[in-house]
């Protein structure tokens, strides 16, 4: 089986016991809750990527970032003969809510963004059925049980439509 590597930089924003997430519109985590963030552009540093991706996907700039850490997961989509080794750098972030920069929906429509919406989630609302592996890693971390070993998701289901709560 072929293994494809993917590296991304993501922001973890926790406030009042809730995790700040985006709703994905495409890719293997579409129609699931995910962390704001994504892939580096050529010549871009980790913090530059973090700032750009959070702004693109949420409309908010960062006021602070700290606590870098790394995790990884192996995701094999159902029916595919390859797996993605998703390597992720997480940073705790604080958002500047005073200055929203962009309308997220406009960004989605022009194809430059894969975030339909932002949402604050209680940890109890996060499940394997509605969240990306990134959000599941953060949930385990916040509960005091960070899984440092690579987690494998075989037969990962890409959701075709958003399920109602």
Description:
- It comes from Streptococcus oralis subsp. oralis.
- Keywords: Hydrolase.
- GO terms for molecular function: hydrolase activity.
- This is MutT/nudix family protein.
- Residues 4-143 form the Nudix hydrolase domain.
- The protein has a single domain, classed as Alpha-Beta Complex (Nucleoside Triphosphate Pyrophosphohydrolase).
- The N and C termini lie far apart (36 Å).
- It is globular and about 45 Å long.
- It has a five-stranded mixed beta sheet with strand order 5-1-7-6-9.
- The chain is of the alpha+beta class and 165 residues long.
- The chain contains three helices and nine strands; from the N terminus they run βββββαββαβαβ.
- A hairpin with a 2-residue loop joins strand 2 (14-15) and strand 3.
Chain-wise SSE layout:
Elements: E1 2-12, E2 14-15, E3 18-24, E4 33-34, E5 37-38, H1 46-58, E6 60-77, E7 82-100, H2 104-109, E8 115-122, H3 133-142, E9 151-156
Parallel strand pairs: 1-7, 6-9
Antiparallel strand pairs: 1-5, 2-3, 3-4, 3-8, 6-7
Gyration radius over CA: 15 Å
Helix content: 10-25%
Widest β-sheet, arrangement of strands:
5-1-7-6-9
Order of helix and strand elements from N to C terminus: EEEEEHEEHEHE
Broad shape: globular
Query: Which secondary-structure class do the elements indicate?
Result: alpha+beta
Number of domains: 1
- Termini Cα gap: 36 Å
Uncertain residue segments:
105-109
CATH class: Alpha Beta
**How would you name the CATH homologous superfamily?**
Nucleoside Triphosphate Pyrophosphohydrolase
Overall mean pLDDT stands at 87
CATH architecture: Alpha-Beta Complex
CATH topology: Nucleoside Triphosphate Pyrophosphohydrolase
Number of strands: 9
Helix tally equals 3
Largest sheet: 5 strands, mixed
Hey, roughly how much beta strand do the residues contain? Answer: over 45%
